[in-house]
Amino acid sequence: MTAELTLKYRRPLPVEGEIRALGRITRDTSRLFEGSGEILLPDGVVAVEAAGRYLKMSLGQITADDFDEREWFEDDRERPDEVEL
Length: 85
Prior knowledge:
By secondary structure, this protein is mostly beta strands. Helix content is 5%, strand content 42%. The chain has a domain at 2-58: Thiol Ester Dehydrase, Chain A (Roll). The radius of gyration is 15 Å and the shape is globular.
């Protein structure tokens, strides 16, 4: 469950077309974890930066009964070598 989330909007996001989201866990403790990430435009430019803190909870504690795990998946495309901030 999200405890804190900070977003920095660097560029407008397009309504149509693909964008890419990258995320990483930057700290992990027994009760919470911290993460950061970016939303990238098609040309690789960072449009949004994010940093957050999240409480560890089971899916049953934070979702409705009809949650479908097939809706979430890992992107198998190659990760860019570097993200320009």
